[in-house]
Restriction endonuclease
Amino acid sequence: MKGIFDARPGTVYDDEIQTRYHFPNQYLEEARQTVGDWIVYRAPRRGGGPVGYFACARVVYIEPDPADRTHSYARMSDFLEFDKVVPLARPGGFYERQLELVERRSLGRTLQGKSVRTIHNMEFSDIVRAGLQETLDPANAVKLELDPTHASSETLALVNAPAEEQERRIVQILMNRKVRDANFRRHVCEAYENTCAVTRLRMINGGGKSEAQAAHIWPVVQGGPDVVQNGLALSATAHWLFDRHLISLTDDYGLLVSHNRVPVELQMLFEKQRERIRLPDDRRKWPHLDYVRRHRAAYLDHSS
């Protein structure tokens, strides 16, 4: 069964919502109902940021907190951040229909006691479609490489399907690699202002598509998440070098270059980035050091 998990920055819980969700056992029954299915993360007002639904993920299993018998962990996978925060309500009413029964002035107080709750499939589909509106918008197809040149006919059928068909196949959309790549590309390229973090070159073609590519730091095939903190905006050449561990990063975000394996002509492009690559203005979107260290370990293995 689908669900809603409330999550916010600065929480006292041991959350890393891409991989684990920590909660008191008063919600254990509701959480167990979501195992094997999908949930939406919601940011409450007390988090200090925008209020609404901001991401989704799949619940793999529930396990006790070994340090505290009154709490448990939901182990998560397939995390995907929405294009924008989806508000609780739309013109036709609340996405969660059960909220229609709550007085608006007491809505926040009511939800404080329902940080984990179940929802119907259609409610989940409506929230996800609203959250991925820009990724699925045909106007952005070329920019996000969801066009016939880059995507299969199966993917295009999902992306261009009528709303009713998308609602029915929402999990297929969430698991589609090209859709996830498009969402990831949008977040990463926007964070880096469509500028290569290594060469500092910024090029936009006539169709509005950035020539910078979104590179995963910790590869998806090895378990890396589709989050902006696991991404770098890189030119095609820098992306090629990064994926082959010919360049990497220090903990201070300086550039490491395998001098004996990277041509001198290319090394000249990187001279200004040895101390620090170009990073997003928003520090929260900087590469996570856990992911950087995984990549650097592979770089050192290849360099030895």
Remarks:
- The radius of gyration is 21 Å.
